[in-house]
Structures are given as structure tokens and as C-alpha cells.
Amino acid sequence: MTTPDSRIYVAPCINSTGGRWLDPLDADYDAAVAEISQDGQIEIFAPDHEGFSGIRSDSVFELKDIAQRASKTHEPDAFVAYMAHTGCNAEQADQHFDDAYSGRWSDEEEYANDIAEQTMEIPKRLWPYFNVEAFARDLFMSDYFSVPASEGGIHVFRHI
Q1: In what order do the strands lie in the sheet with 101-105?
Q2: Exposure winner among 13, 17, 30, 42, fewest CB in 10 A?
């Protein structure tokens, strides 16, 4: 799932069935949260959420922050995947995402092949002897990592 499709179930702690699903990117999100919390009189939490693959939080405001930061990137799904894989918070991901993200690829070998073509001067007649599988394995053992993309393929990130 991508973050633009995210939603958060906001509920009062005293009655988790008394909540409702909210869109964290909706302009009325804060007003709806205030209404559920009866203007801060009742403690609230997020017992469920969708569109934050791999991220677990029961904070309605932390999830909103993640959704807003992700929506400002060119790949919201990748932003959330980066957070989930690295374990960083939204602020850290915001600082490092653009430097770490190397794009969406069909697989690690496709990415390695692209890197080889752009950075190595291998004569065309020798390309059949180049072991792209081994090169990909070596790249992703230390310098890069990949995370499955929700719409197929993988997101590739450089370790920072």
C-alpha cells in the first residue's frame, strides 16, 4: 500500500469500538481527532492503521506525521518502506531518504546491470562474460539493500 491510500483508526482508549477511520492527509484530520478525544478530555490511540507497511504505532499524531512526510516525496511507498527497514523515525527518514533512495527496479540484478553499464568501461564483446548475478550479490551484501515494492519490483536504497 502507498501512503496516499493510508488511513488510521482513531479511537478513545476507554472504548476502541467508538472510533472511526480517518485519512491522515485530510485537512479535517485534527478536528476529527479532537472530536473523538472530546477536545482532549479522553485519551485516544490508533489500534489499527493501513498504508504504513511494516510500521507499527498506536500514536495518531506520529502516523499523521509519517503520512505527511511520505506524501511530500516522489515515492511515498518507498519512504514508508525505508522507515520500516531501517527502524528510523520520520524525521531521520526525511533527512536521509533522498540520498539513500536509488529507485524502483524489477530486481537486484537489473539494478546491478545498470550500475555496471554506467560506471564500468567493459567492451561490448566482453559483456557476455560479466557475471551480473555475482556483482548484484556483492553490491547488496554491503552497500545497498532492497525492499519489495507494493506494486511489484523492489525499491533500492544505499546504506547511509
Answers
A1: 101-105, 154-158, 144-148
A2: 17
Contact, 29 vs 14, CB < 8 A?
Answer: no
- Output the pTM of the full model: 0.85
Q: Which domain holds residue 106?
A: 101-158
E-state strands within 1-159: 7-12, 20-22, 44-50, 101-105, 144-148, 154-158
pLDDT in tens, 37-95: 998 899 999 999 988 888 888 899 999 999 999 999 999 999 999 999 999 999 999 99
C-alpha angle 51/52/58, rounded to 5°?
Answer: 115
Give SS3 for 47.
strand
Question: In the chain, how many domains are there?
Answer: 2
